[in-house]
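hiii, so i know i said id send this last week but things got crazy w the move. better late than never?? heres the sequnce for the chain we talked about at the cafe, plus the structure i predicted for it. fair warning i was half asleep when i ran it
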Amino acid sequence: MSLNMKADFLRLVLITLLLGAAAPTLAQSPPPARPPAVLTPVQAAFLQAEARRIEDAFVQKVMGISGASRSQVVRAIPAKGRLTDRLSRIYSSLERDLGAPLADEQKAMIFVAEGERKQALKELPALAATK
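okay and structure toks below
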């Protein structure tokens, strides 16, 4: 084998190895994110109404769990965009307003209600796009 043939063979092996090593990572990478779909006015109105309904359902659940009034629960929820832990703020504010600590069971139920709220809000854009 001549020197040029050996070099060509080594290049071919190297390229094959590189492509073989890259193939699994290329196959496993997530598809590129699609740009957000533009919603029609009807879809946007649906999205806003459903978001309000989801937030109101959360407030109702927390009222039932904690025994707090609607105004106390609404006041306990931090404003959108605030850099704070939402649940700890709700717990501490309700405990302050109610004058007693929340039981661990109450905190757990509020935690579950918050998870349901987040999941419903996460699924909402896809639901609105179908309307």
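btw The CA atoms of residues 83 and 89 lie 11 Å apart. thought thatd interest u
miss u guys!!
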